Amino acid sequence: MERRKFVIGIAAIVAASAIPIINYRFSHLLPGGYLVRPMVLANFCDKDAIRDIGLSYRHEVPEENERNKLEALLLTNSEGIKVDSKSTDEVISDLLGTKIKREFKNGQTVIENGWVLSETEARQCALFSFYD
Amino acid sequence: MHIDARIPEDESTIEGDICIIGAGAAGISIAAEWIPTSCKVILLEGGGFEYEDRVQDLYSGKTTGQPYYPLKSARLHYFGGTTGHWGGMCSIFDPITFQKRDWINDSGWPMTQEDLMPYYERAHNNLDIGICDFNLENWQKKDPSLESLPLDKNFFWSKVWRYSPPTRFGTKYKDIIAQSKNIHLYTYANVVDIKANENLSAVQEVTVKNYTGKTHKITAKYFVLACCSIQNARILLASNKQSPNGLGNDHDVVGRYFMENAEVRTGELWLNEKSALKLYMLRPPRVKAEIAMTAKKQAEYEISNGIISMIPLLWGKNIPPLIKTWAAEDPRKNLKTISEAYENAKESKLSRFLNSKMYNSFQLVTRMEQIPNPLSRVTLDTEKDELGMPRAMLHWEFTSMEKRSLRKIMEVLGQQVGVAGIGRVRLQECLQDKNDPSMPANTSPGWHHMGTTRMSDDPKKGVVDANCKVHGIENLFAAGSSCFPNGGAVNPTLSIVALSLRLADHLKKKMKA
After folding, report:
1. What is the ipTM metric for this complex?
2. What pTM, to 2 d.p., does this model score?
């Protein structure tokens, strides 16, 4: 019994230490840059889960079911001004972060596969599903 | 003093000033208020001092509608009542529980939280809770590590809970009652009929019976039904020799508006950083809190109340829903099954050591206020128990509002967790289809029977008035949660005792007059 617990414990340690590695790999190897990285959600979901959220969003919001449209919506700030897609990661990350905060505050959220997400996060997942 | 009702000669007549029917939290609390006085209180208990399956079987009955626990095991039938195995969680009803809410039919009490507050304070003694303080800031001053989640206070607040040890009324009050000269406790005295005078304006006597076949009559100035929701309704409905619909039931309200607290796994909280969430995890004898939506937002969204508790997801996922584990007719067997399920779900010592009691994911469980619904009700079966009483039948039914409320609370919590920037919320699968109004199959009742002799100033809407007196019957009262017009989202025991103490005070005044 004690041996069994020991083996389970070792397995738990290995699994626990693997989580940050998986997450690191995931958030850095995603195609499409910051636009397809829902940074907070990526702490809790693997690639498959994020793709499924994206597919669900595309199904529920068919008018946005196009890669270019999603990119354009993600790159447009709250004043309706489009940010250049070739902007630095920092600029895009800041833009998305600000939009996500504002959307949560304004109740611009959606529920996809149970997750309560800002519209921008859901669009990031949707865009990711095109790449994956 | 204690008298075993199996011993006196058959067909004895017992006289008293007040007759209290039922010796659970409500009945004992009222009886104890008369120690020591010259008032002769007859306290009737259907069982003895220990569990007996033959006595417990008198509570058996059928259920329909939303799946419910076997009625036989949903209450304890011996001195002390269901406090014999309750968990001890105590909190007060929020002010909104007492208010008339335009968006909830038949909501509102004919009293306010403020009216009940002095009795809540007194009830703390009965339940051995300690000081009556539900102000979180006071507790946080004493222990700054009790940090609340940084959610917008316009949306959510942390509702304080206190713990009773839990007080077993059977243990605490057995000797006190038995040694009292003016409290006459009769065990094995099951009320099978209430007889009123000719014009049904006052109760004359009640008939008690036990399985020796003996019956006795009790006469008193005042009678108090204190057998909890299902049995209070059953006794009134079965007392139908003089009035075919049962006593106090001129408007067909007796038995209706049965309510519970639906306990539903509603989601998961995922935090960016691991946390112990100490305030929300604490266990007896200290204070703990749960997340509650503000009254203002409940009104804005037109939903009923719901309060969210949390446990580490690691455990929560492994604990089967109570509706699955509390399935046997024998409550002792169910208790064993539940303790085993919790034991098996517990995190291993190694895992707890590695996690240092810090987690980034939590199972969210919402305790939902059931809105008053006349179709959710207790009726009589054609089948009778060993004493010849028709068995109770329970039809437990929700409206679509409870499900909508569950979903809305979780959706708004998800938004506010996002605003706070602390993580994300995931709704449980059962809430993901917004067009499905049915309650989830694993909805677990809280063993919190409420309603059936509800309180209202209007006899067409309630069985008792604000003083718990049955409308139209001058000396018959009901005590406990059967009088609640709506039940809020907290465990009812503290409120049961508080309301019972209020009734005791009212009866004292009447006796003096």
Report:
1. 0.92
2. 0.93
